């Protein structure tokens, strides 16, 4: 009996060892397979050229991580140090805040480049037609920037109208002991807003300003639908001059084209009310800045609030910087964390489509 028990337990022990060894082999094989698969997938990820990650002007790490889910990243300075290594790998150029610049010499040096994707709406910083002639597609990221840009436009309007920046400076000044009663702004509620460029961003601005009970006028290449106008209670001005004469706030939300470059100059500024404010969130080149300086200096218009200038930033001795009735922000219309992440996500969608040979969701084509 004892011999049979010993044999039974010995067999059980051997079977346990065999099971343990088999389980080890299975797990080891699974580990090797997964490691190999991960290495293959890692190697198969395409490469993207970006300006830089981190630092004062580069992509935030959270934004870079969105790209890394689909691409290996090559920073521009690393590319310049070893272009022979990196050039054959790069299939997309992801442009953030206009960098890396889509210079044709750079693009020609990338033999397998499929797309240039720019974060934001404007494409006036690229020669789209010449890029297309190289067989490279171009995409941007409309839609995802509209809310943040519209928010800033309203912020500029309010800050200028109610002298918010000046009020802050008075409040923190060590020499302030009483608030001057002459420190007065202008009324926003019930005033007239004239929007030049009633695209998606312009329309979102109208939606926000309706909440201030503003009378909304707009001038656009094409008239919005009756329903669109009804929702925001906007009235179409076929004549730009008519809008300028009637508006307390004139807000520019147009794309930069040959037709809109210099759209607001001496004549247009002279048509505005002396109590009017000009707000520009489009592009600096839409406004003749010399004419604007003169209008502000002479009191032809009350004030200007600008998120865009030309160039950016302005030279430190530019006369606009010395005027007390100008508010300037450094082109921050899209600069929120949530919007930046959505922009990068949209850039990646377009880039992945380009690499796979699929239609780009936001491809820009020259007419």
Features:
13% strand; 367 residues; alpha/beta; seven-stranded parallel beta sheet; single chain; 14 helices
Walkthrough of the structure:
- The structure is a single chain.
- Helix content is 43%, strand content 13%.
- It is built from 14 helices and twelve strands.
- The protein has a seven-stranded parallel sheet, with helices on both faces. Strands 2-1-3-4-5 form a five-stranded parallel sheet.
- α2 (61-68) runs parallel beside α14 (337-355) and α7 (146-161) packs across α9 (200-210).
- Mean pLDDT is 92; it is low at 33-42.
Task: Tell the overall outline.
Answer: elongated
Number of strands: 12
Q: pLDDT under 50 segments (min length 5)?
A: 33-42
Strand residue content: 5-15%
Largest sheet: 7 strands, parallel
Distance between the termini: 96 Å
**Order of strands across the widest beta sheet?**
8-7-6-9-10-11-12
Residue-averaged pLDDT = 92
Order of helices and strands: HEHEHHEHEHEHHEHEHEHEHEHEEH
Count of DSSP-assigned helices: 14
Oligomer: single chain
Q: Percent range for helical residues?
A: 40-55%
Structural class assignment: alpha/beta
Q: Supply Rg.
A: 29 Å
Structure in a nutshell:
By secondary structure, this protein is α/β, with parallel strands linked by helices.
List the helices and strands and how they pair.
Layout: H1 2-44, E1 47-50, H2 61-68, E2 72-75, H3 76-81, H4 83-86, E3 90-95, H5 104-108, E4 115-118, H6 128-133, E5 137-139, H7 146-161, H8 164-172, E6 192-196, H9 200-210, E7 215-219, H10 226-232, E8 234-236, H11 240-246, E9 249-252, H12 266-271, E10 277-280, H13 289-298, E11 303-306, E12 326-328, H14 337-355
Helix pairs in contact: 2-14, 7-9
């Amino acid at each position: 009996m004892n011999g049979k028990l010993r044999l039974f337990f010995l067999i059980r022990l051997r079977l346990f060892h065999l099971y343990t060894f088999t389980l080890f082999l299975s797990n080891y094989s699974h580990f090797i397979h997964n490691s190999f698969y991960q290495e293959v997938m890692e190697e198969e990820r395409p490469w993207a050229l970006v300006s830089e990650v981190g630092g004062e002007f580069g992509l935030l790490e959270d934004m870079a991580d969105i790209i890394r889910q689909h691409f290996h990243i090559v920073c521009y300075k690393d590319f310049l140090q070893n272009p022979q290594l990196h050039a054959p790998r790069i299939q997309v150029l992801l442009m953030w805040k206009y960098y890396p610049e889509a210079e044709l010499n750079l693009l020609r040096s990338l033999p397998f480049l499929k797309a240039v994707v720019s974060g934001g709406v404007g494409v006036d910083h690229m020669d789209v037609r010449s890029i297309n002639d190289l067989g490279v597609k171009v995409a941007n990221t409309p839609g995802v920037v509209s809310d943040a840009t519209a928010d800033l436009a309203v912020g500029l309007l309010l800050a200028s109208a109610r002298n918010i920046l000046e009020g802050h400076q008075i409040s923190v000044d060590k020499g302030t002991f009483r608030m001057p009663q002459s420190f007065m702004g202008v009324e926003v509620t019930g005033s007239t807003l004239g929007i030049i460029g009633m695209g998606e961003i312009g329309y979102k601005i109208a939606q926000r300003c309706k909440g201030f009970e503003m009378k909304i006028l707009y001038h656009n290449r094409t008239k919005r639908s009756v329903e669109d106008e009804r929702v925001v209670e906007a009235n179409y001005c076929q004549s730009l001059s008519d809008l300028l004469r009637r508006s307390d706030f004139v807000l520019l939300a147009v794309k930069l084209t040959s037709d809109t470059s210099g759209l607001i100059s001496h004549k247009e500024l002279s048509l505005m009310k002396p109590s009017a404010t000009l707000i520009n969130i489009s592009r600096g080149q839409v406004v003749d800045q010399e004419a604007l300086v003169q209008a502000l200096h002479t009191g032809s218009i009350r004030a200007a609030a600008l998120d865009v200038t030309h160039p950016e930033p302005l030279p430190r001795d530019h006369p606009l910087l010395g005027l007390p009735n100008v508010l300037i922000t450094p082109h921050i219309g899209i600069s929120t964390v949530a919007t930046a992440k959505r922009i990068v996500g949209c850039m990646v969608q377009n880039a992945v489509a380009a690499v796979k040979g699929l239609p780009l969701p936001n491809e820009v084509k020259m007419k």
